[in-house]
Amino acid sequence: MDVQELSDEEFARRGNAIFEERVHPNVDVDAEAHKFVAIDVETGAYAVHEEERTATKQLLERHPEAKGRIWFRRVGSESAHHLGANLWSNEKHSS
Predict the structure, then answer these.
(1) Which of 3, 34, 35, 48 has the fewest CB atoms within 10 Å, i.e. is most exposed?
(2) How is the chain split into domains, by residue range?
């Protein structure tokens, strides 16, 4: 199956599996905990850098065919970004 045809869940599963199998054993999680990892979910090639854009650029310089099939993750986290709403208003709250 072409990577472009994968569901979002399968794309994420493959990216996370590659991270656990190939990236995690080769990085110092404590020293690189906040770095981004750009992973080609088809080949398993990856790049690690403090900036997401630079990790992507490094990966694409070595593997230009990876465009459109990159999974992002942070070294010390299960995702690259945190999404959510701020539940507090701008008003001060007393404890």
Answers:
(1) 34
(2) 3-74
